[in-house]
């Protein structure tokens, strides 16, 4: 039986990797994947705690997160395609038209 | 027969009395609403029959009164005002006094309406305003209604309502041709005359109002039934109060009945059409003052000495106006001053306490003065038709005038343009003579009996007034003789009089009826044995009101014979001056030569108008000018409004605008805007456009918030 703290630690590591990816990478696709990573680290934590406490509501929440993530992917990828069509790049730093 | 029927059938004829007011009102409403498209005949018939019906109702009241044994009857009509304990009803009073007035007003009124249907047919054509025919009869019917309210009201207040109503009608009818005055250079003469009558009457109305206030204040009522006889007879208070009431009432009488000092409006009132002069300014309205004094007999009897005040005013007016009448050239002006003079006789009579004599003279005067005015109207019309033939004129004997001739200054009322008219207009001439004899006071004619009674009462109690009235009567006979010689005898002094044309029958019939009344009207108070019917009849009401029996003096040959002889002497003198050598065209009035400045004074009304102008009008106008220019314009407008209010308000608004609005409010608003703008400029630098920057700040934000939540 793997102790709960392992799951928490793994989840924290995965979240930190995701956050770091979002903050440091310029490729929009990769930022996108990093966001997915963060979401899934949270899912992992939900599942771990649900299992540990014998409560299925955490697992149900994961389904919601996955559903929202799927919707987010659909919108996000559409945005990326639209940006690419206009700018011919997916470098996030070059998409700065709203500079004040 | 009819009397017993009325009393036994149970039908109350008295209940018809409100119709004396409402029939003329209906008549005027019919003409007002439907008359626009009607021709003159229908309008005249409607108006005349309304008054004739009123006369019928008045006769029914007479019958009812006989059935009631002369006892006064009060018919409640409506409650006008009701405030707590205070009630102000509109009641009709049917007694011998009010019925006398009703019969005179509606009877003479009917005849004058009929006459006016003919007279106004010509008048509206000469004034070139056919639409005014309807307006004339609407005003005339309104006058009859108002006069009926005046004579039938059972309280001073209803009397006052009628009093003001007839004043209004008088104003409207004097200024009837307010915009047409072809024979004078003053375009507004008629309107001015109306205004003058109105203003002079306002002075009198002030007196009447004050008398009413004092009466109400002391007796707590204005109703005749409550005032007379008890309230006044048992009043034991201050005699000074009675002096005030009667004095103020006398001022009202002086205004309405044209006595000194307010008579000046009546001669000018001749600016109105002649039927108006006959109805309002001779027969009916101007006698309202005499009626008022007779109605208030108990008050005038209450204190010794009041009588002499009223009688003096009346006698002075009688003499004063008679002298003026001698010096007039205008046929209507002579009659106007004669009316003032005769009203003076009446006021003197009622002032002396000879109420019956005064009212008797009122009735006979209504007959013969209405006749004289209508006759004068017929003369004027005849001359005017000679001067300026209309449709139905006399093209056969007189070629039409050029257009230029119409604008020639010609006064058809000037007796110097007349002369020799008796052959041209015989009907008018003969009826006019009947009226003249009645006014002169020749025996048998109506005026003789009534004037004789006044003189008789005066001789017995007030010798000075008797002599004044005798002189006035002498002058009356003289100026009437002068008028008749000038108008009807001698040779025509103007082409218009040569071709004058007799008036139509609608005008002659009323003249004939009135001539009949002027001859025989005096017999209603036959002063010998078995006579005095009118005196007993009217006296009943007065005795009831005063609570004292009236003294009826016996006929005195010592009064009648000298009066007759003086009248004949006056006629003789007038024949010597005007009859023996008739006036020639353009010749000066022989009396003017003989009397010189005295005639000038008489002709110019003793300059009373000028004196009033100097004493009252000019100072008043100066005062008004002072008020208008100095007080209103300089002080009120310039100083108070412009300098005081406007300038300070401007300063205040400038203060609000400049320092407050611009300095404070605008700076707050602008400061707010620039602050927002500047801070926005600074903050916009945070908007880098790099998404990773935003993500980093979100990240740190989350870290900070979580850190706070965890470590708090």
Task: Describe the SSE topology.
The complex is a heterodimer of chains A (100) and B (712).
Chain A: H1 4-24, H2 28-53, H3 57-87
Helix pairs in contact in A: 1-2, 2-3
Chain B: H1 2-8, H2 19-34, H3 40-67, E1 73-83, E2 86-94, H4 96-126, H5 132-152, H6 156-174, H7 189-219, H8 224-233, H9 239-256, H10 265-268, H11 274-283, H12 288-295, H13 297-302, H14 306-326, H15 331-351, H16 355-387, H17 403-406, H18 421-424, H19 426-440, H20 446-461, H21 463-488, H22 495-498, H23 505-520, H24 533-546, H25 557-579, H26 590-595, H27 597-603, H28 608-683, H29 691-711
Antiparallel strand pairs in B: 1-2
Helix pairs in contact in B: 1-3, 2-3, 2-5, 3-4, 3-5, 4-5, 4-11, 4-16, 4-23, 5-6, 6-7, 6-11, 7-9, 9-12, 11-16, 12-15, 12-16, 14-15, 14-21, 14-27, 15-16, 15-20, 15-21, 16-19, 16-20, 16-23, 16-24, 19-21, 19-23, 20-21, 20-25, 21-25
What does this structure look like?
The complex is a heterodimer of chains A (100) and B (712). Chain A has helices spanning 4-24, 28-53, 57-87. Chain A is mainly α and 100 residues long. Chain A has one domain (4-95): Helix Hairpins (Orthogonal Bundle). In chain A, helix 1 packs antiparallel against helix 2 and helix 2 (28-53) runs antiparallel to helix 3. The longest helix of chain A is centred in the C-terminal third of the chain and has 31 residues, at 57-87. The radius of gyration of chain A is 17 Å and the shape is elongated. The termini of chain A are far apart. Chain B is mainly alpha-helical and 712 residues long. Chain B is 72% helix and 3% strand. Chain B has 29 helices and two strands. Chain B has a two-stranded antiparallel sheet. In chain B, strand 1 and strand 2 (86-94) form a beta hairpin. The termini of chain B are far apart. Mean pLDDT of chain B is 88; it is low at 1-6 and 392-407. The interface between A and B is medium-sized, with 13 and 13 residues.
